[in-house]
Amino acid sequence: MQSTSSRFETTLPKEHFYSPPPKRTIKPATAADWRTLGIVGIIAVTFIATVQLLTQRQPAAAVTATAAAAAAAPTAPDPATPPQVTPEVRRAQLLTWPLGATGWTTMPDGHRIVVRYMGAVDTFDQLPRTPQWSDMWKVTQSGASWVWYTPVGFTRPAWVDP
């Protein structure tokens, strides 16, 4: 078949365009295929059984006999094992800010804001009714500090414990 155009000339074979695609046939399994599958299965089962035998724990009687023998025999301190030492744990100390001091704090929603320490009150009910935004008061009854802040999702400020 001859085809011409202004850009190129080419000759295309007819069988490429006019013949149907070859049909793919599924080959039935032969005895050799089943033999290979059987060998692979035996190897897999052997591997799994070996791993289980290697990771299996000792029987309880053997463990008890070993523990009883170890308890009866006097033991010297093992130089490879260091002695157990209880470390000194320092406790956090309460910081008190001077009145009117400002500082940074991280709010529960992740925002960091500058707060102004206004003092301490005995109970939560004694917090001021008309505070300014970012005022921080300490409640001595609970030991918590409260900040007048507008949390995410709120439309008005509220007392928030940072």
Please provide the ordered H/E string of secondary-structure elements. EEHHHEEEEE
- Number of DSSP strands? 7
Multimer state: single chain
Helical proportion, percent range: 25-40%
Q: Determine the N-to-C terminus distance.
A: 84 Å
Low-confidence stretches: none
The order of strands across the largest sheet is 3-4-5-6-7
Shape: flat
Largest sheet: 5 strands, mixed
Number of helices: 3
Strand fraction equals 15-25%
Radius of gyration: 41 Å
**Structural class from helices and strands?**
alpha+beta
Mean pLDDT: 77
For the structure shown, list the relevant keywords.
single chain; 162 residues; alpha+beta; five-stranded mixed β-sheet; two-stranded antiparallel ribbon; 3 helices; 7 strands; flat
Commentary on this structure:
- This protein has 162 residues and is an alpha+beta fold.
- Among the domains are: 41 residues; 59 residues, no CATH class.
- The protein contains three helices and seven strands.
- A hairpin with a 5-residue loop joins strand 3 and strand 4.
- The chain starts with a strand and ends with a strand.
List the helices and strands and how they pair.
Blueprint: E1 2-4, E2 9-11, H1 14-18, H2 31-55, H3 60-72, E3 102-106, E4 112-121, E5 135-139, E6 145-149, E7 158-160
Parallel strand pairs: 4-5
Antiparallel strand pairs: 1-2, 3-4, 5-6, 6-7
